[in-house]
Fold these 3 entries.
Entry 1:
Amino acid sequence: MTNEPTMECFRIDESGYTGFDLLNAEQRFQGAAAIAISDDDAACLIREHFPKLQAQELKYRALSRRPANHSRLLSLQRDLLTHHKCVTYVCDKRYLLVLMFVDYAVEPFYYERGMNFYADGQNYAMASLLSVAGPTMLGQPAFDRLLASFQQAIKEKTPVSLNALVAATRATKWRAFPEALGPLAQYAASECLSAIANPGVNTDATLVVLQSLISRMEVMADGPYRVEHDQSKNLLTYHDLLQRFIDHDQDIEFRQTEIASIKFPLKLAEVTQVDSKASPAVQLADVMIGAAIEAGNNLAGLRSGGLDPEAVLSLYADNQLIHLIPSTDFEEQKRFRQGTQAAEVIDYFSENFYAPRKS
């Protein structure tokens, strides 16, 4: 048996990271999973469910290709979700980009006119409508060019890219939805262009993912806890942000949704990188997020094969799975986000970390 530190530890793994590019057609979803389990217990579970495993490392993608492994993978996840503290977060990156468009290319226009655009999740409602109906209302190719131009403008922050964004907005059938596209198409609103050009604004989804995971880990942890994650290049961004969260000692709390809030200083006390080949617990986090991302792709009709997505999702309790996807149930959105401090959260995280997006 190994002598692991006594502080509670959540193991994390991610999937779908594409940096600033939220329009990557091959990876529509991004997410991460966190599990509070020791390496010893994780190794026992792996041996129990995959007694004949020959590979050096348990990898979800390799296992899910073989139908003979499907029942074992579902049974393993059932054990994890039933007996261990777990949370999985998945976001539709295209929808997240539309949310960012609403945050930076729409909201500042209304803010300057004294309107709280975030009240009761109005931004989510607009972004959901844009995501679902935008291609039809605005024209599919034009809407795609608009999103690509917006993403490029946030990355480059040059007059040329900002002007290209305004032109792309005007090239859509924007009069079909002037509440969302009018600020740029009709007015080329300087307050919106300034928000997009802000050096602290980017389209990396890492902060979105971590805010959601942390909001649940902070609730699940009985006291100070630590995080371990793989040494992959993608997780370096996660590592840096987690360390910044740990170092942030200001006493402040924000309500994000009906079930989520975040309070600083965090209980999170330490983050370390490990080799996943030597960490059965990190390998189990890979299984959890791999199955969730695969389920998202299958339900969206982007992929086929692997585990039955409905079977995967049925394993989760409501507080174990967080997802950021468009929803046109506007009344439910309003109820869920009633009283949210969204504007304060966005301002605070922009100032202290970098361009946020709450879940």
Entry 2:
Amino acid sequence: MIVDVADKALSMQIDVSVVISGYAQGNFLMADETGGLGWYASYSHALIPLDHHFRYPKSLQRILNQNWFEVAINRDFEAVCEGCADREMTWISPELKAVYWQLHQAGWAHSFETWQGDQLAGGVLGIAIGGAFIGESMFYHISEGSKVALVKLVEHLRKRGFVLFDAQLQNSHLARFGAYEVPRKEYKKLLHQAIQKPCYFD
């Protein structure tokens, strides 16, 4: 369950430090039905394991072995935001995309992408704070593009020393990769420990 934890109405000219502080406390931004932004919290968080508990469908191994996709970081951050927002029901409003862009320019928000030639195949949008990566959304234009991005992102986070990959809300798709839920109290403890680590996403 998601609950509203603060007032709505963030202005387009945001204070980046305030936004990062909100995420560091375990909250996240989301647009409501009217498009207004607000801070929200969840009673539980879905975490993607960064250890041996991470898994993926066997059908994906052939695609990984054959290198169908090239991986890139922040090659086209705006296109990844657009891809994540381009769905019938989305919490990513134009104002939230503007917030992500400002976080990206300040070095906090990143896109982890898969490409086929000059075509963006898929990607994951997220915010990195210390050793925590908070996944905001993912999408694909080419089948399997987002799945490969997720697998390669986990490999990248491991190499960089990250200890927490927050996928926020559990679903059947994430469960296939080993995602599991923890209650908010435990999540906040793990998050506090993770953000103390001096990790660099890119």
Entry 3:
Amino acid sequence: MRSRICVALSGGVDSAVAAHLLLESGHAVEAVHMRTWQSEDGAGECPWQEDRENARAVAEHLGVPFRVESLISHYRQHVVEPLVAGYGAGRTPNPDILCNRFVKFGFLLEGALAAGCDFLATGHYCRMEHLPSGEHVLRRGADPTKDQCYFLSAVRRKALPHILFPVGRLTKKRVREIARAIGLPNAERKDSQDICFLGGKVTVRDFLGRYLPDRPGDILDREGKILGRHRGLFRHTLGQRKGLAIPSNRDFERYVVVGKDLARNALTIAFESDRKNGLWNDSAELRDLNFLCEPIRGGRRLLTEPRFRDPPVAALIRFREDDTAHVHFETPQRALAEGQTLAFYDGDRLLGGGTYYTRMEKADQQ
């Protein structure tokens, strides 16, 4: 059946090939480029002009209508401000997860539907199945090296009926081949690995430093001995090895961040090889649960992705009525931080996710 589909062209090759595949299938395709950030205030180096012109060139090549949708205020409110506030409170929120939930599959999708489109399509490497039963199932992408389901674990379930991922059944290699074969102007453009408002020129810590004042404090070992000073807790993450500037008294081994004490404004470090260094977790507490299926209650053994691209690990998850959960991992996990996201799966089907919100039960280092 011919549908009217809005394709979110990012400027990259994946969304460009997604638009081509939909055209090839006979659908009425129109393109939108989502502008989410402006760097006039010097905060961030978002390459939005280059992205926009690449997206425009793709639309012209494919012969589809093109427009730019400014969602800057929404992005600032729902992504950047929570990111800054989270780091300031000692948490580690994920901006891509926030963007997908509130902006791309929130405001952008709502605008596409209001304009009369049936679906919003993107270049995500995920597989969406719209079953005859009316169920909408989101599965991992066919290319395991590019799968992006993790970043969709907080998308609202009500959005699923209106989402398409045309390249989810392809490998990245095949996407490049298609782009070259049809002469896409961005066929050789490199993939972006950066948060969109950073643009590869600014680190997350530097960006946050434009909003959060430095608050120097002590760096301690696990016995409380002062080893040095830090500029601000937001500049450090659990498991961090680099940038501590603390000399090690062990050959070929550096200190690693194992804890933050907001009340004392102190950073705790230890050696990776030390048993009971506080870096490994048997279990975790989740809140802000989001389900892409019927809500789950009670105990369920599922596969989890504790962080993006972490190897899948089985866990017993006890889901509570208040949309919190307790997770017990079959194997201990390293450096799980408050505010990070855990995604949970039934096989390759993404069921949802939640955020860590308390320090976890520690395990001996494995």
